[in-house]
Amino acid sequence: MNWDIFLVGMLPEHFLLTGLVLLIVWSIASDGARGAAALSLVCVAGAALSAAALGLQGFAGAPFAGQLSVSPTASLAKAVALALALPVLLMAREDHGDGSPLYPLLLSSLYGLVLMLGADSFLTLFLGLELMSLPVYVMVLLGDPQRRWATHSAEAALKYIVLGGAATATLLMGVSLLYGQSGTLALGIFARSLASSDPMALTGAVLVLLAFFLKGAVVPFHTWAPDAYEGASVSVTGYMAAIVKAGVLLAALRLFGETVLSRPMVNLLALLPLASVVWGNLAAMRQPNLRRMMAYSSIAHAGYLYLAFLGAGPGRFQSVLFYLLAYGVMTLLAFSVVPLYGDDSQRDRLDRLQGLFQRSPYAALVIGLAMLSLAGIPPLPGFVAKFLIFREVMAAGHTLVAVLGLVGSYLGIYFYLRVIQLMFMNAQPVPADGDERAPTGAAMVASVLCLVPAVIVAVAPGWVIGRF
Amino acid sequence: MDSVLMLQLVLWLPLAGMFALLIVPGVAHDAIRRLSLWTMLLQFALVAVLYARFDPAAAGLQFATRVPWIAEWGVYFSLGLDGYNILLVLLTAFLGPIVVAGSFSAITKDIKLFYAMVLLIQFAMMGTFLAQDLFVFYLFWETMLIPMFLMIGIWGGERRIYATIKFVLYTAFGSILMLAAIIYLVLATQKAGVTSFAFADLMRVKLPLDVQLWLFAAFGLSFAIKVPIFPLHTWLPDAHVEAPTTGSVILAGVLLKMGTYGFIKLGFPLFPDATLVMTPTIMVLAVASIIIGAGLALVQDDIKKIIAYSSISHLGYVMLGLVSLNLIGIQGAIVQMVSHGLTAAGLFLMIGMVYERCHTRDLGEYGGLARALPVYSVAFMILTLASIGLPTTSGFTGEFLVLLGAVNSGWTQHVGGHSFSLVLALAAVSGVVLGALYMLRFAARFLFGQVRVPGADHGPVADLVPREKLILAALIAAVFWLGLFPSEPMRKTEPAAREYQLLVRTSRLPAVATARADAVVQGPALLPGTKP
Q1: 3-class secondary structure, B24
Q2: Does residue A291 form part of some domain?
Q3: A365 assigned to some structural domain
Q4: How much is the ipTM here?
Q5: B68–A414 CB contact, under 8 Å
C-alpha cells in the first residue's frame, strides 16, 4: 500500500469516513445530536471539493493496487455526485430535522458510492454498491418524518429491499460466472466478456448488466421505483433520483470503459432503455402524485442514460456525466421548493400545486424551470444533455435508435407541462390550504445551490463539457 | 454607434428588459407597462437605424458577430442581418411596441409575468431570425414555445388549456424530428471534415438523395406545422381563438413567419435535390392551403376564426412563391410574409378592441358598426382591403408578385410540355377571388346593415381612444408604405432572393463515385443494415 496515494488520493473517502465516525460518536455522547446536519454538510462539501481538486489536477494512482484506484475522470464523477448531495442534506434538514438518524446513513451511503467509483475489481464494486444501497433502504423507512414507521414507508422499503436483494443476487451470479470463466475478479473482464462468444462469459456479463438495469430502474425492472419514491420523504426521494442513480450509472460506466459493443449487445442495450423511455413517459402522465410522477420520469431518464452506452469511446463518459449533472440538479431543484404541509402525504398531491404561482411565485417559477429542463426544452440544461447523448448514439451509427429515443422523449413533454399548467393556468386564485407553508431557510439555500449550476450549464455548456 | 454592437443590443434588449421587470414590484402596473413599452420602442429605433444602414449592394451577412460557444462541437453564437431576415427583423421590432401598447387595457391578471413573457418571446423571435448557426437557431426556435404556451394558457379564453397543449404538442413533434435531422446533418458535415453548425458550412455538404429526402422531411414537417400548411393547420384556429389578443397578434404577426422563414433560409437551400423532388407536392399543398383556408374562412361565424383561416390562405401564397423559384415570386413571397404580418396583426388587434367593448366574437351579433364606431370602421376597412390585396396596399404587392412569379414559371414549364404548375398557379389565382369574398362578407355583415352593437345596452360603446388610434395609424402607414414604395425594401432583399434561387437550383448530390470513392460524403447509416 502506498501511503501518499492513500492519504491524498482517497481524501474524499476520508472526509466522509471522518464525518460518519464523528456523527456516530456524537449521537452516542449527546442526546439530541444537534448539529448533525451542519457536520455532515461540512464533510460532504469537503469531500466534493477535494474530489474536484483531484480531478482537475489530474491526480492518478492506486491506493490498493488491483482493488481501488484514483483517476481524474473518476474523481470528477465523485465530485459531481457528492456536490449533488449538498442540496439533499439541506432539504433533509427541512424534512427530517437536525438530529435525525438520516445523516449517518446518508454519509455511509455516499461512502459506498465513492468507493464504487474507484473500484478496480468486482469485490470492491460489490462492496461499494451494497454500502451505497443498504442505508437507502433504511432511509426510505424513515419516510414520513412526522409519522415514523408509517405503513406505506415500510411497504416501500420492503419492496425496495426485496428487489434490491434480487439485483444483488443477479450481480453475484453474473460475477461468479465471469470469475469461473476467466479466473479473475478484475473489472476489465466484463468488457472482454461482452465481446466474447463464450456462452458462460456472455451469460455472466448479461447478468451483471441486468443487475445494473434493476438498480437503475429500467423497464421491466422498474416496479420498485414508484413505490420506493412515494414512500420516502421528499429529500430521500431526491437522493434516490439524483445521486443513487448517478452512482449506478457511473459505476456502469466504469464497467463498460470505452469498449465498442457488438451487435447483439447493442440490441439488448437499445431495447430495454427505449422501452423505459416510452413506458416511463407514458405512465407518468397518469400519476396523481408528485413523487410517483417523478419516479416514472426517472425511469425514462434512466432510459436515456443507458442509451448513451451505445455511443463509443470517450464521448460516453462526457455525455453520461453531463446528463447526470443536468438531471440531478434539475430534479433536486424541483424537490427543494415543493411547499410543505403538516401531513407529508399532502405534500405529494399534484393538485396541491394548483395556483401555486399566485401563492409563491418563486417556487412556481423554479419548479416550472425544472420541469421544462427535464422535458428537454431548450435553452435549459436538460436539452444540451439530451443533445449530447443522442449525438453520441447517432455518431456510433445507431440512427434509428436515436430517432426512436427522441420520439420517446416527445411523449414526456405532456406530463411535465401539466405540472406547469397546474401551477400557472388556474382561472381564479386558489387559496392556500390551512397548513401550507413555503419552504424556508435551508430548503431555499438548497434551491439556490441548484439554480446556480443550472444557470452556468445553460449559459456555458461548452465550458462545463470541457471540464469533463 | 457601431452597427455590430447595435445588432447585439437589438437581440439582448428584450431579455434585459425581462430581467429588469423582475425587480419592479408586481403591483406597479404602470411602471411595468412603461418599462416594456420603452424597451420595445428602443429596440425598434435600433432596428430602424440598422435597416437604414443596411447596404443592399453588399452580398452576405452584415453587422455579423461570431463568438465561440460550445467550441468542441463547433457551435458559434453567430448573428447577422442579411436579405433573408432584414424585413422580418424590421417587422418583429415594429410589432413589438404595438403588441405592448395594444395590451394595456386587455391584460389585468398577472401583469408582470405577462410582460415578461412578451419580452421573452420577442427575444426568442429576434434570435431565431438573426441566428446564423443551426444550434443557436434551434435554441431560439424552441424557446419561442414556452412564452406562447403560457400566454395562451394563462390569459386565454375558455378552452385555453386544450388549445395551448395542442399548440405545444403539434409544434414540439415537428421540432423533435428536426432535432434528429440536425444531429444527423451535423455528423455528416463532420465526416466531411468540418465540425460546424454554421448555415454556410452546412450548405456545402453533399448528401445522397435518399438522405436529403429524409432530412428534408424532418425539417419540412417542423416548418410546415409552424406555417401552417394544410393539412397540418388544425392547431391554428384553436390557438388563435383561445389566445388573448396579444397572443394572436404575435402568433399571426411573427410566429407564423417562422415556418416560411425556415423554409427559405434552411429547408429548401439545405436540401436542394430533395426540394426539387418534392416541389410538385409542396405546390399542391400550398394551393390547397390557399383555397381550403379561404373556403373555411368563408363559413366561420367566429370573427377570430375568419382571420385565423385567412392566415392559412395567405401563407399558402408565400409557399407558392418560394417554390416557384422565380425571382419575382420569391421576392413576392418575402413581401407577402411582411404584409400578412402587418394586416393579420392589425385585424387581430381590432378584433381585440371590439371584443373588449362588446365581449362577443359572434359575427351574427354585430352589424352596422360603421355608424356606431366610425373611426374604428374606417381603420378596419383599410386593413380588410389590404388583406384582400387592393392595389396601393402591401397585400397587393405580395400576392400579385407571387402569382406573377408562379404563373411565369408555370408558363415556362407549360411551354416545355408540363402544364401541371401552370394549372396550379391559375388555381391559386382563384384564391384571390375567394379572399375578396370572405373578407367582404365579413366586413359587410360587421360594418354595414342594421346597427347591432352587442353590449350597448350596458352603456354606450365608445369609439377608439387615442392610444388605439395611434397604434392603428402606425400599422396602416406601414401597410401603405409597402404598397406604394415596395421597390425600396425589395432592393434590400434581392441579393438574398438571388442567392436562394441559386442555392436551390444547384444540385448537391455527391459526385458519381467512380473517380474517388472517398470524396463522397456520407452520413452515418440511416437504418441499421442499410447503406447511406
Answers
A1: coil
A2: yes
A3: yes
A4: 0.90
A5: no
Query: What is the number of structural domains in chain A?
Result: 1
Q: Cβ of B160 and A425 within 8 Å? A: yes
- pLDDT tens over chain B, length 532 residues: 788 888 999 999 999 999 999 888 878 888 999 999 999 999 999 999 999 988 888 778 888 888 888 888 888 999 999 889 999 999 999 999 999 998 888 888 888 899 999 999 999 999 999 999 999 999 999 999 999 999 998 988 888 899 999 999 999 999 999 999 999 999 988 888 888 888 888 888 888 888 999 999 999 999 999 988 988 888 999 999 888 999 999 999 999 999 999 999 998 999 999 998 998 899 999 999 999 999 999 888 888 899 999 999 999 999 999 988 888 999 999 999 999 999 999 999 999 988 888 888 888 888 888 888 888 889 999 999 999 888 888 989 888 999 999 888 888 888 887 888 888 888 888 888 888 888 888 888 888 888 887 877 777 778 888 888 899 999 999 999 998 998 888 988 888 888 888 888 888 888 754 444 444 444 444 444 443 3
At B362, give phi and psi (nearest 5°).
-85, 120
B77, B67 Cβ separation under 8 angstroms? yes
Nearest to B278 by CA among B197, B340, B223: B223
B168 φ/ψ angles, rounded to the nearest 5 degrees: -70, -45
Chain-chain contact of A410 with B184 (C-beta, under 8 angstroms):
no
Helix (H) or strand (E) holding B80: strand B75-81
Residues 181-240 of B with CB under 8 A from A: 183-184, 186-187
Contacting residues of B for A460, CB less than 8 Å apart: 69
> Is residue A461 one of the residues assigned to a domain?
yes
**Hey, are the CB atoms on B139 and A420 less than 8 Å from each other?**
no
Question: Residue A10 domain-assigned?
Answer: no
Chain A residues near residue B172 by CB distance under 8 angstroms? 377, 410, 413
Range of the domain at A322: 258-468
B44: closest CA of chain A, how far (Å): 25
Of B72, B172, B179, the CB nearest to A465: B72
Per DSSP, B463 falls in state: -
**Contact of B228 with B220, CB cutoff 8 Å:** no
CB contact under 8 A, B180 and A390: yes
What are B59's three cell numbers? 452580398
